[in-house]
Design goal:
By secondary structure, the chain is α/β, with parallel strands linked by helices. The chain is built from nine helices and 13 strands. The chain is 32% helix and 25% strand. A five-stranded mixed β-sheet has the order 3-2-1-4-5, with helices on both faces. The chain has a five-stranded mixed β-sheet with strand order 8-7-6-9-10. Strands 11-12-13 form a three-stranded antiparallel β-sheet, with helices on one face. Helix 4 runs antiparallel to helix 7. The longest helix has 19 residues. It is globular and about 60 Å long.
């Protein structure tokens, strides 16, 4: 008997995540890799990896995408559902924690908070301006301290006297870190201080004015940093839940959301290996002169976006 499954892809500026779920939303295959500034190439790699992981007769009957490049990748894969990150993360988290009230998410270059009431999104906030509360910031500071980012959290947990590091912005935090290091603080205390700075920045920016209630679930790549988890628990005086698949929740949510719009034909994994190309074109349809992004597959126009009105005209259609 052929198993029916769903595919979800969460593609961001730093990392790309994807999962294949069975009918009970259990993960059959999963992958996490760096986007490296090329979402199309990252999607090719991740789809290829998923296909190699899958065993036995299986049919992918729906596909969903989310993340900053969701429309581009959605066009590439012929997605049945293209959803924003808030919706995808909420649905993915609720599939594991149906009683969740607050979702904290910190990714590579942005962060968000989602408040849940009665199983639906009641409020949310996003921050993509200040890098001091993101994974990219922690990664760069770990390099400055000569610490592998994978070991950063464990080293922070060994701190006896966490350093007080300014958390308002990247520039102040980096300057303060250098000053504290020169003053003689050890790496453990500096690492713990940075974890606390990330939490302080997040709560004072993304979480400002939000009523954070438990159960609280922390997700995104930074949720794997035990030092940041401990700092959140101390600041919020509450248990912080981190799922083993916390870094995949956006992809899980995208896959679940796609189930309501199943395709006529099963997903063909080879579609990711076709020739894709993007072109930028200035629309001449009106006085706005919008910059259109055109997406081609094997030379044929597949999708076009970027226009402010219904009269946008891709190249060759003026």
């Amino acid at each position: 008997m052929t198993m029916q499954a769903t595919l979800g892809v969460d593609i961001g500026s730093v990392s790309t995540k994807a999962v294949v779920l069975d009918g009970e939303n259990r993960i059959l295959a999963a992958e996490y890799l760096w986007t490296q500034g090329d979402p199309l190439a990252a999607t090719r790699r991740i789809v290829d990896s998923l296909q190699k992981q899958l065993k036995g007769p299986l049919s992918v009957v729906s596909v969903g995408t989310t993340g900053s490049a969701r429309r581009l990748v959605g066009s590439m894969l012929g997605a049945d559902a293209v959803k924003n990150e808030i919706t995808a993360h909420a649905v993915g988290t609720l599939s594991r924690y149906p009683d969740v009230r607050t979702i904290l998410e910190i990714g590579g270059q942005d962060s968000k908070i989602i408040l849940i009431d009665g199983g639906v999104v009641a409020d949310y906030a996003m921050n993509s301006l200040c890098a001091a509360g993101t994974g990219a910031f922690l990664s760069s500071q770990a390099k400055r301290l000569g610490i592998a980012v994978e070991q950063f959290g464990d080293i922070a947990l060994r701190a006896k006297h966490p350093a007080k590091i300014a958390a308002r912005c990247t520039v102040f935090a980096e300057s303060d870190l250098v000053h504290k290091a020169q003053a003689g603080h050890n790496k453990e205390d500096l690492a713990a201080g940075l974890c606390r700075a990330v939490v302080s920045n997040y709560l004072n920016n993304v979480g400002k004015g939000k009523r954070i209630q438990g159960p609280i679930v922390f997700q995104g790549g930074v949720s794997k940093n035990r030092g940041v988890v401990r700092a959140f628990e101390a600041e919020l005086a509450s248990e912080i839940h981190v799922d083993a698949d916390s870094h995949l929740m956006g992809a899980v949510g995208a896959a679940i959301l796609s189930k309501s719009a199943r395709r006529e034909k099963p997903f063909d994994f080879s579609v990711a290996q076709l020739l894709y190309e993007t072109k930028v074109h200035e629309c001449a349809g009106c006085a706005n002169n919008c910059e259109l992004m055109e997406f081609y597959r094997d030379g044929a126009l597949l999708d076009c976006w970027g226009g402010r009105c219904e009269g946008m005209k891709p190249a060759g259609q003026e």
